[in-house]
Amino acid sequence: MTKTATLLDIAAYVGGESKLEGVSRVIKLASNENALGPSPKAMAAYRAVADELHRYPEGGSNDLRAALGKRYGLDPARIVCGAGSDELIGLLVRGYVGEGDDVVYSRHGFLMYPIAAKSVGATPIAAPEKDLTADVDALLKAVTPRTRMVFLANPNNPTGTYMKTDDLKRLHAGLPSSVLLVIDAAYAEFVVRNDYTAGAELVEQHDNVVMMRTFSKIYALAALRLGWAYCPPAVADVLNRIRGPFNVGAAAQAAGVAALHDQASFDAARTHNDIWQPWLAEQLRKLGLTVTPSVANFLLVHFPDAEAANAALVKKGIITRKMAAYGLPQCLRITVGTEEECRAVVDVLAGFLKA
Ligand SMILES: Cc1ncc(COP(=O)(O)O)c(C=O)c1O
Fold this sequence. Notes:
By secondary structure, the chain is an alpha/beta fold. The chain has helices at 3-7, 40-48, 62-72, 84-96, 112-119, 136-142, 165-173, 200-205, 233-242, 250-260, 263-286, 306-315, 339-354, and strands spanning 27-28, 79-82, 102-106, 123-127, 129-130, 133-134, 147-153, 180-184, 209-214, 227-230, 290-292, 298-302, 318-319, 321-322, 331-335. The strands form four sheets. The chain has a seven-stranded mixed beta sheet with strand order 2-10-9-8-7-3-4, with helices on both faces. Strands 11-12-15-14 form a four-stranded antiparallel beta sheet, covered by helices on one side. A two-stranded parallel sheet has the order 1-13. The longest helix has 24 residues, at 263-286. The termini are far apart.
C-alpha cells in the first residue's frame, strides 16, 4: 500500500456536535468539557494577550512549565507543552513508532491512539478489557517484539473506569524496557480515589514512562488547545526536537498560568463533579439504566435503544456522544453538565423511558 492508501484507512476522529438545526438553546454534553466554564483569571489573562498578537509566543512555554512544576511538584525540565494532549499523542508516536511497529491500547481506549498509530504506518492492537476496564494481563499479552508503545487512558474515555495504582505498576513491570508506556491522565484531577495515581512517580522512577495531562477538562480551556507531558529527560529531548518551535500559542500559555493560580475555580469544578456526577448516575440507575461506574466528569450509559434515546435528547436540544465509533453502539456518553443541565437530562430520559 502507498502511504496515502494507508492514511485513507484511518476513520477520522469526529468531535462532539455543538449545534442542532432549528434549536436555539443547545445543552452540549458531548465532549467532557468543564460544566462551570473557564476561570475568570484565565479569561483576563487571555484578553491581555490581545495587544501583543503580532509577536511570536515564547517557544519553550517556560512560565507555564515553571507554574506546572510548582503546582504539581514536578521538574519543569521534564515537562513538554503541546497544542492539546492530542498534539503530544502525535509527537510521541512520530518520535518513537514507525512503519511495521505495533501500538497497544485497551479495547475501548481513546480513539486518537489508533489514529496516531495508523498515521505513521503502525498497527494499533486493541487488548480486551474486563468490565469495560483496561486489563493488565490482556495488555501485556498483546505486547510482542513489534510493540513500541502502550497507551493507557487513566481514567479512560469513554468508559470512565480507571486502573488502580498496583495494577499500573504491574503493567509497567511487565513491559520490556524498549516499550514506552504512555499514561494519558486527562481526567486525573476529577479522581477521588486512594488507589489511583496519575503516574508522575512512575515517570521519575523509570525511563520508559510518560504521563500526559490537559487543560481542556478541569481547567476548562479546551478552546485554547493546551496539554503537557511529563517525561524522562531523553523523551523530553526528543519531543522538543520534533515539535513546532511555537507549538503553544501565547494566549494558551498565559491563560494556562492564570488557571493554575486560580485555586477557587479548580475547587469549584471538582466539588461540582463530586456532587453532580454521582447524582446523575444514581438518577439514571433509578430509571433502570445501566451506568458504568465512573471516576471522571462523564458517564457511559447503556440503553436498550441508544439511537432512540439520542433522538429523544436531541429533540430537546441535548447533545450527548454516540458511541458506535468506540464499538459501544448501545451506549451514550454523557458529560456532567450544570445542575440545570443534569436535571434536564434526567427529565428527558424519564419521559423517553416511560413512553
Ligand atoms: C483520554 C483523553 N486524552 C486526550 C484528550 C485530548 O485532550 P486535549 O484537548 O488536551 O487534546 C481527550 C479529550 O477528550 C481525552 O479524553
